[in-house]
Write a structure and sequence with these properties.
about 170 residues, alpha/beta, Rossmann fold, five-stranded parallel sheet, globular
């Protein structure tokens, strides 16, 4: 059974453990084991270093990364999630993304006198192109929820197709 590292700002939601459970259940429906960072219990009050080490261990254990790239605290994806995407891509693992908006990056960034990327991408080119270069896709759907469950399921379906050699229909 392939293991999927489920990364994203979902861990900051008030109902984060419920969202993680829902996403793990969806993974199970596709024959994957979802690894959600909050599932691991750390004794006492964990430090940032404790959490970093735990997440790194989960990424090493995972076969595939599935990244929630919904804009978080600004027009772009959560920086911790983007870091994890870079780590997993550098590890040579398959990576997929999803977001809760289908607006392009330049449509979400306010004009501020600096050049804004206009490459038709949903986020900074280093984020979207990393997933494309690794053979993954980024599913985008307009959703109110940061958890982006609809887009998550689309990305999960594509991961299943690729792992099982099934052509998109």
């Amino acid at each position: 059974m392939k293991k999927l590292y489920l990364a994203g700002p979902d861990v900051f939601l008030p109902n984060a453990t419920d969202v993680g459970r829902q996403k793990r259940e969806l993974c199970g429906q596709f024959g994957f084991e979802g690894l959600f960072p909050l599932d691991q219990q750390l004794a006492g009050e964990p430090s940032g270093t404790d959490i970093f080490r735990l997440d790194m261990a989960l990424m090493r254990e995972a076969d595939i990364g599935l990244f929630n790239l919904s804009p978080f605290r600004g027009p772009s994806a959560d920086p911790g999630t983007v870091f994890e995407l870079g780590i997993m891509m550098a590890m040579g693992k398959r990576v997929f993304g999803y977001r809760n908006t289908d607006l392009l990056y330049h449509q979400r960034v306010a004009e501020d006198g600096y050049t804004i990327e206009r490459f038709g991408l949903g986020d900074n080119l280093m984020i979207d192109c990393a997933i494309q270069e690794a053979g993954g896709i980024i599913a985008a759907e307009r959703e109110e929820s940061l958890a982006a469950l609809g887009a998550f399921q689309l990305a999960l379906e594509e991961a299943w197709r690729q792992v099982n050699g099934v052509m998109a229909g």
